[in-house]
Write a structure and sequence with these properties.
The structure is a single chain. The chain is an alpha/beta fold and 316 residues long. The protein has 2 domains: 117 residues, NAD(P)-binding Rossmann-like Domain (Rossmann fold, 3-Layer(aba) Sandwich); 191 residues, Dihydrodipicolinate Reductase, domain 2 (2-Layer Sandwich), CATH 3.30.360. The chain is built from 10 helices and 14 strands. The strands form 3 sheets. Strands 3-2-1-4-5-6 form a 6-stranded parallel sheet, with helices on both faces. It has a 6-stranded mixed sheet with strand order 8-9-10-7-11-12. α3 packs parallel to α4.
Amino acid sequence: MLNWIVIGIGDIATRRIIPAIQAEPRSRLYGLVTRDPQKAVSYNARVWTSLDEALADTAVNAVYVATPVFLHAPQTLQALRAGKHVLCEKPMAMNEAEARSMVQAAHDTERILGVAYYRRTYPKLHRAKQLLEAGEIGTPVIAELTSHGWLDEKETGRSWLVDPAQAGGGPLFDIASHRIDVLNFLFGHPLRVSAHLFNAVHRYAVEDNATVMIEYAGGVRGIVDVRWHSKVKRDECRIRGTEGEIELSPLNGPELIYPGGRENLPPLSNLHYPMIENFVDAVLGKAPLLSSGDSSYWTDWVIAQAQRSASSALRP
């Protein structure tokens, strides 16, 4: 039985993370770390306001870091060095150097470090990878992923998302990171990156849109376009090859269309559950970790390269 503590009781923790831990039969929600203990009163768990005190409890095996991005690296490093396994929210860190330090700490402490890129557990994404490897669309040449929506920080109550000191960046960090990781899952290590970041509508301190192009081995290119200024929602994903294409739109939906047919492969209703299950399997030595610190580092690498590429294009 893995005794979990969750750091932070925000929206994603209450809707997905905590229910997933409670549902996983080899896991127990042992405790919660929060600045506001009132948020924890409905849970049958220990409550701390100090991470130091929580990590000092020898019964704790695993830590879920569910705080804003600027806290990911320091809290992950602290937990790893206390001998705990860690599953951290995405993106991994504020920058590439922080991500690298997290990976190194996991190796040094011989603890498991996972990152919450839960789309790696989607059945249709695994099927798409299988089809690509089987040559279903010939040689893949381009993959296009878009995520468009409207963000008004005053409406969402998540004002930290537009604060670069807390979030690191705008949709590049928040929603592009998931799609960059999908490309890395399908095509391997990224080789080169170019990007444009811009403020077209909102005058946030972070960009309100980002377009990233990534090159992979074999000449395949991935394009990720994310926007917080579209009142038309889009969640597109398609992969084109020399002999056809694979359509996965919407990425979060069940449909997979390819030259040989159409399949219906829905994810679980709680998207975090398979990720928690896989993490427990990895801790127990029963399966490899689908989204590790090592694999997730490359998403942070792409983000860093994108920021460097686009630094002169971002409007004040």
